Amino acid sequence: MRFQPALDKIPAYEAGKPIELVVREYGISPEKVLKLASNENPYGVSPKVSEVIKEAVYKMPLYPDDSYKALKDALAKTHGVDAKNVIQGNGSDQIFDFATRSILSPGDKILQNGKTFSMYSIYAGQCGAETIQTNSELHDLDQFLDLYKKHSPKIIFICTPCNPIGDALDQSDVYTFLQKISPDTMIVLDAAYMEFGKTRDPKKEVQASDIISKFPNVLYTNTFSKIYGLGGMRIGYGIASEEMIRAFYKLRPPFNVSQLSQLAAATALSDREFVENYLKSNLKEMIRYEEFAKKKGLFYFESYANFITIKLDQAKLDSTQTFETLLKEGIILRNLKSYGLNALRITIGRPEQNDRVLERLSELL
């Protein structure tokens, strides 16, 4: 069987190690496994979400309302846009898929940061497009602009706050950059960690309603996997001009978000108390990791997300070996060697979870 030649150049996405793998391979009981690898919400989901899902189990045999009106209305209200500007996705990944397939042809190019979410280039590669990236770890918009002028990419991906580094751009810098880009170039603004970023520094907030009104070529994406704790429900969304959303709907498969997922997401939006409590805990516990790194003489990236990335070069430790040592003990972190970094990315957990990680890292150092 002959597959598309473009697939030969595309790596398979490597997700964080699941709890089930550690249980199988190392014989550790599930309750003793600590997973702080995939930037999930350590407090789970809102009690309101849990309750509404229990009450809606009877809906599982039924196809969802394919208009997704309740969910899109809730998102439109949250972001101050019209429901016609919203499209739901099976995770925000599916929105990236819509974006690339709607624009790219073989031989086209995309532009992204040197260290960023790997699915952008994977989706682009599926279309036969080439990925151009900066040589910087943090977002350097001057480099972006130089590469844009040189390569004329069809899509520019900006992830702010950025995974896996955690850096974030000021809104004013984003807008200044966008003013220099042709309206024929699609800009994908991945805002998966925006709630965390604006909590730490309000200057980092980019509002969907504002940016799409000023820049019709911008696609604003977000997810329910992080702040709302719905990673297992696989639901995200995009906000953009009506023209862009109409194009995406021609690529969208029917019933692309499950019955229970859309219900969980709409309910999650209504529980701000749960979100605010998590944001406060995340920032407080983030500072603990920063103080630990300073004390141990380790470099860390200032993070505006719900994780921190710590380099191990100063400690003369190898991130792969350190990751595997901790994995065998039931502590799952994210090794960033595949990103070209001798570093660990650690999801900020609950206080008692962070106690365990910090104590064990201190022993290894």
Detailed description of the structure:
- This protein is of the alpha/beta class and 365 residues long.
- It has 2 domains: 5-45 and 272-364, Aspartate Aminotransferase, domain 1 (Alpha-Beta Complex); 61-268, Aspartate Aminotransferase, domain 2 (3-Layer(aba) Sandwich), CATH 3.40.640.10.
- It is 41% helix and 13% strand.
- The chain is built from 14 helices and 12 strands.
- Strands 2-8-7-6-5-3-4 form a 7-stranded mixed sheet, sandwiched between helices. Strands 9-12-11 form a 3-stranded antiparallel sheet.
- The mean pLDDT is 96.
Would you spell out the secondary-structure blueprint of this structure?
Blueprint: H1 19-26, E1 34-35, H2 47-55, H3 69-79, E2 86-89, H4 92-103, E3 109-112, H5 119-126, E4 130-133, H6 141-151, E5 155-159, H7 171-178, E6 186-190, H8 194-200, H9 208-214, E7 218-223, E8 236-239, H10 242-249, H11 259-268, H12 272-296, E9 307-311, H13 319-328, E10 331-332, E11 334-335, E12 343-347, H14 351-364
Parallel strand pairs: 1-10, 3-4, 3-5, 5-6, 6-7
Antiparallel strand pairs: 2-8, 7-8, 9-12, 11-12
Helix pairs in contact: 2-11, 3-11, 4-5, 8-12, 12-14
Major sheet? 7 strands, mixed
Q: Mean of the pLDDT scores?
A: 96
Which fold name corresponds to the CATH topology of the largest domain?
A: Aspartate Aminotransferase, domain 2
Query: What proportion of the residues form beta strands (DSSP E)?
Result: 5-15%
Secondary structure tally, helices? 14
Strand order of the largest sheet: 2-8-7-6-5-3-4
Task: Count structural domains.
Answer: 2
Tell me which CATH architecture of the largest domain applies here. 3-Layer(aba) Sandwich
Structural class by secondary-structure content: alpha/beta
**CATH class group of the largest domain:** Alpha Beta
